[in-house]
Design a protein that fits this description.
Blueprint (H helix, E strand, L loop, with lengths): L1 H42 L5 E5 L3 E8 L11 H17 L9 H24 L2 E9 L2 E2 L5 H22 L1
Antiparallel strand pairs: 1-2, 2-3, 3-4
Helix pairs in contact: 1-3, 2-3, 3-4
Length: 168
């Protein structure tokens, strides 16, 4: 009986160790995203813009019931379901990360953490909090948050990594 437990424990630690980076990055991103939103909500009222870099960057507290950068507004339930499906896929296929490069693990962690950060908002508030507001003159980028940034950076890393592998 003791031998069976040791073997099982060894298998679990190898499997868990193979994805620890994914979950560590995801947890850090989700926590930082929620912390940043908490701090911004505590210092701004909705719709208020506070200039950080004049003419380029404001902190502007916004409710977003759409996707990243305000796309597809009014589909909160759809985005909750989509996020849950994505999280399940990442967890179910965690064994595939065992041999993956650290770049892939970080990228998946960034995407997962960003998805979880926005999921928390959607479940608790019915919308996502956005506050990073960039503009130059009349050119204005839709407000976003750390979770959105994390998802985009993670996706870009995956694309760049897979393009680099195909070129070899």
């Amino acid at each position: 009986m003791l031998q069976v437990r040791c073997r099982f424990r060894g298998q679990m630690s190898r499997s868990a160790g193979s994805v620890i980076l994914v979950y560590a990055v995801a947890g850090a991103v989700a926590c930082l995203d929620q912390l940043s939103k908490f701090l911004v909500k505590g210092s701004l009222v909705f719709g208020e813009a506070r200039p950080v870099i004049g003419g380029i960057f404001n902190l502007t507290l916004i409710r977003n019931d759409g996707a990243a950068f305000g796309m597809l507004r009014g589909n909160n339930f759809f985005f909750i379901a989509l996020t849950l499906v994505a999280v399940v896929i990442v967890v179910v296929f965690r064994g595939r990360y065992r041999a993956a490069s650290p770049v892939v693990k970080i990228a998946v962690g960034l995407i997962l953490g960003g998805a979880l950060g926005n999921l928390v908002d959607r479940l608790l508030l019915g919308h996502v909090i956005d506050f990073l507001d960039f503009h130059i003159g009349s050119c204005h980028w839709p407000a976003f948050n750390l979770a959105d940034s994390s998802i985009c950076v993670g996706a870009a890393l995956l694309i760049l990594f897979s393009a680099g592998r195909k070129a070899k």
